[in-house]
Design goal:
single chain; alpha+beta; Jelly Rolls; 5-stranded antiparallel β-sheet; 3-stranded antiparallel β-sheet; 7 helices; 25% helix; 18% strand; binds 2-oxoglutaric acid
């Protein structure tokens, strides 16, 4: 049976894991589908053919793939997301990872203002295959924005990830590895400082889908050409894109 959302932990730590939201069968079927796409055994319009050793993440696969779209709007996710956002959630981004990202420290709201994540483990994930590392409570701290890196900003001329490293040091809280089981979902705040941990077992898979959401009421949304996908199946563009 699926676990329950610990909303207090989410508010306090900036993340929480809901265990067993998806069955092994459902996860395995998505993994097999993605392995087929990667290997070219299945062809999908919009999914570019890949070299045998190309495992880079997909970006916004739900724009052209009904399977990824369904995973973005899995009904099980709606209520936990609504609790976190205190509003109806709208899906705005998907990223599929076959392997760990080893991505540097960052905050998702730098790229996607107002967002939060539902990160779905499609297999067991631990420090061997590149678990995410998160800094608990950092969502209550400073969000680095582009103005900080621009002329006159506190981190003018800095590399983005190095600037987030500096915020991480200032927060002075140790990061933790989020080790989860297949079918678990990590809900996390878009200001949380996190990164893709090192892959200690080279060549290992780490199948995961990172879904990003914003609140229906969010008005200051810069990616106006990206559909805001509701759990009722509807899509909208808001603010309305200007012609040209
Ligand atoms: O899955 C990972 O390794 C990193 C994911 C991540 O950073 C994100 O979803 O923002």
């Amino acid at each position: 049976m699926s676990g329950v959302m610990d909303i207090e932990a989410y508010r306090r730590d900036g993340f929480t894991v809901v265990e067993g939201m998806f069955t092994a069968d459902k996860c395995e079927s998505f993994v097999a589908y993605m392995m087929d796409l990667q290997a070219g055994r299945r062809v999908l319009e919009g999914f570019a053919a890949r070299a045998a050793d190309e495992w880079g993440r997909t970006h916004n696969q739900h724009w052209y793939d009904p399977v990824a779209h369904q995973w973005l709007t899995n009904p099980e996710l709606e209520e936990p997301l609504r609790q976190c956002l205190r509003d109806a959630p709208e899906g705005i981004q998907t990223m599929y990872f076959w392997v760990g990202s080893e991505q540097g420290r960052h905050q998702d709201q730098f790229y996607l203002p107002g967002c939060m994540s539902a990160w779905i483990a499609l297999q067991d994930v631990d420090v061997q295959n590149g678990a995410m590392l998160v800094q608990p409570g950092s969502h209550r701290g400073r969000l680095l924005v582009s103005a900080d890196l621009a002329e006159g900003g506190e981190f003018a001329g800095w590399d983005y990830n190095e600037a987030v490293d500096a915020i991480f040091q200032r927060n002075a809280v140790e990061e933790v590895a989020v080790e989860v089981r297949q079918g678990d979902v990590v809900f996390f705040d878009g200001v949380l400082v996190h990164r893709g941990g090192p892959i200690l077992a080279p060549g290992s898979f780490r199948h995961a889908l990172a879904n990003h959401y914003i609140a229906y009421g969010l008005q200051e949304w810069p990616h106006v050409r990206w559909p805001r996908v509701g759990f009722d199946g509807g899509e909208r563009h808001y603010p309305v894109p200007q012609a040209g």
